[in-house]
Design a protein that fits this description.
The structure is a single chain. The chain contains 13 helices and 13 strands. With 377 residues, it is α/β, with parallel strands linked by helices. Helix 4 links the parallel strand 2 and strand 3. The chain has an eight-stranded mixed beta sheet with strand order 1-9-8-5-4-2-3-12, with helices on both faces. It has a three-stranded antiparallel beta sheet with strand order 7-6-10, with no helix packed on it. The relative contact order is 0.18. The protein has two domains: 235 residues, Type I PLP-dependent aspartate aminotransferase-like (Major domain) (Aspartate Aminotransferase, domain 2, 3-Layer(aba) Sandwich), CATH 3.40.640; 125 residues, Aspartate Aminotransferase, domain 1.
Length: 377
């Protein structure tokens, strides 16, 4: 038996919706399925506008463009994140300022942000790791005090909340991912959530290659033209058709993943109580979406041995990000502010277990049994 780390979500109606998109003869961007997905996001999240994009990377790039990030600007974020979080701002010439993370949630340490603010700081980018929220009240308070913008990297955070507010809707912009590894997928894709309606028209122009084409299709103008700098951030309606099948079944997918997450936690709690492993932490004022289940070994060496042991038993478990400030590009385009107390140490301990929609209970039982075997329990 081989248990893969990920199995892209599939609910059964995806191919039918793709067929409908083809028959509609509207497979380019902003077709009927794109509109359905955008409306669902706006209504579910409660945001002024949601624009589907070709990736979460591109959603973040759009946010950087909307904020007019310029060479010499600084943007604060954790180093424990995917490269796209930084790339979106580096492409605009900004310097990335990394700060340490919290060891409990693996999120940016909100108490380290303010000390990293300078006269060149333009934005803060909290990353909601594993779909568990950063301390957004404190982050928004700092942003307001220093006149900064907040771009939420909620790539993993759809349907998660912080004090009742969905992640991606608290800051100025929120960025979702619909990559094949995410809770809902369109293969490659994402979405930009916009809180302030004043940004909507400019966002549509940037997304439509710098044209006012969106206004033309709404009948607001009789022809469209090139009005500003932009790019092509529209996904195909074929991708949106695949995604729509899953958004229709969002509650079913959510409950399935939460059940798997809960079973992992139940079966591995014994190891945490005995001080052998650490399990995920979800603060009381947060709800999560079961995006991933991870454990923390005591050291990098122990984690490496556990990964290899599980692989021998047919289980593909993986580590996650290499902290960006340790990478060649991280040293070139950024700097770590303060002391790296937890970022490297905690990243070297973390191990992600197989987690996906439709993961059978017996496989979770098998995985946890093999983990216990590794530790001689």
């Amino acid at each position: 038996m081989m248990i893969y780390f990920n199995n892209p979500p599939f609910v059964g109606t995806e191919l039918e919706y793709i067929r409908q998109a083809v028959e509609n003869q509207k497979i380019c961007g902003d077709g009927p399925f794109t509109k359905k997905c955008s409306q669902w996001l706006e209504e579910t999240a409660g945001t002024a506008k949601a624009l589907l994009t070709t990736s979460c990377t591109h959603a973040t790039e759009m946010a950087a463009l909307l904020l007019n990030i310029q060479p010499g600007d600084e943007v604060i974020m954790p180093a424990y994140t995917f490269v796209s979080t930084a790339d979106a701002f580096v492409l605009r010439g900004a310097k990335v300022i990394f700060v340490d993370i919290r060891p409990d949630t693996m999120n940016i340490d909100e108490t380290q942000i303010e000390d990293a603010v300078t006269e060149r700081t333009k934005a803060v980018v909290p990353v909601h790791y594993a779909g568990v929220s950063c301390e957004m009240d404190k982050i928004m308070e700092i942003a307001e005090k220093h006149h900064l913008k907040v771009v939420e990297d909620a790539a993993q955070g759809i349907l998660s909340t912080y004090k009742g507010k969905m992640l991606g809707t608290i800051g100025d912009f929120g960025c979702y991912s619909f990559h094949e590894t995410k809770n809902f997928s369109m293969g490659e894709g994402g979405a930009l959530l916009i809180k302030d309606g004043r940004y909507i028209e400019q966002a549509e122009i940037i997304r439509e290659k710098g044209t006012n084409r969106s206004k033309f299709f709404r009948g607001q103008i009789d022809k469209y033209t090139w009005v500003d700098a932009g790019s092509s951030y529209l996904p195909s309606d074929l991708n949106a058709a695949y995604l729509w099948a899953q958004l229709e079944q969002a509650d079913r997918i959510f409950k399935d993943r939460m059940k798997s997450w809960g079973l992992y936690y139940e079966l591995l709690s014994e190891l945490e109580k005995e001080g052998i492993l650490s399990l995920p932490v979800v603060p009381e004022h947060c709800t999560h979406n079961a995006h991933m289940f991870y454990v923390k070994a005591k050291s990098l060496e122990e984690r490496t041995r556990l990964i290899e042991y599980l692989k021998q038993k047919g289980i593909l478990a993986v580590f996650h990000y290499i902290p960006l400030h340790t990478a060649p590009a991280g040293r070139k385009f950024g700097a770590f502010h303060g002391e790296d107390i937890y970022t490297t140490r905690e990243s070297e301990r973390l191990l992600r277990l197989p987690m996906y929609y439709g993961l059978e209970e017996e496989k979770i039982v098998y995985i946890t049994e093999k983990i216990k075997e590794f530790y001689g329990i």
